[in-house]
Amino acid sequence: MQTAAAKPLQTLLKSQLASDILLLLLQQQQQEQHHQKHQHRLKQHRQQHQKQLQQQLQNQQQLHQQQQHHHHQQHQQQLQQQLQHQQHQHQQHQQLQHQQQQHQQQQHQQHQQQQHQQQQQQQQQQHMRCPYSG
Fold first, then answer.
1. How do the residues of the chain divide into helix, strand and coil, expressed in percent and rounded to 5?
2. pLDDT per residue over 57-103, tens digit each?
3. How far is it, in rounded angstroms, from Cα 10 to Cα 8?
């Protein structure tokens, strides 16, 4: 039972939506291993709790998927969710780099403009001084 339940848990752990809830679930399982005397009651409670968590996870995934794309099969949803999440992180990283480059270019242009304006001012001042010195 446990090994069968562990595999979907591992796949879910990869999606960030599920990780927090699963960590709580794993903590709960670890705590329950210490209290083996009350195992029967806790097993029932844990099964109920797992069902609730799985429903929550499914709801979250469905909501998340509806925002991105409309898919039908849940197993595909999980795989695509992981892929989309990885791609999304990669895209964000590229966007950040691109923004930084743009920002640097803007700063560079501004700096050049300032230098150009200073040169113009200096030239005007030299023209102004010319009549007085002559």
1. 90, 0, 10
2. 777 666 655 555 444 445 555 665 555 555 545 455 555 555 556 55
3. 5
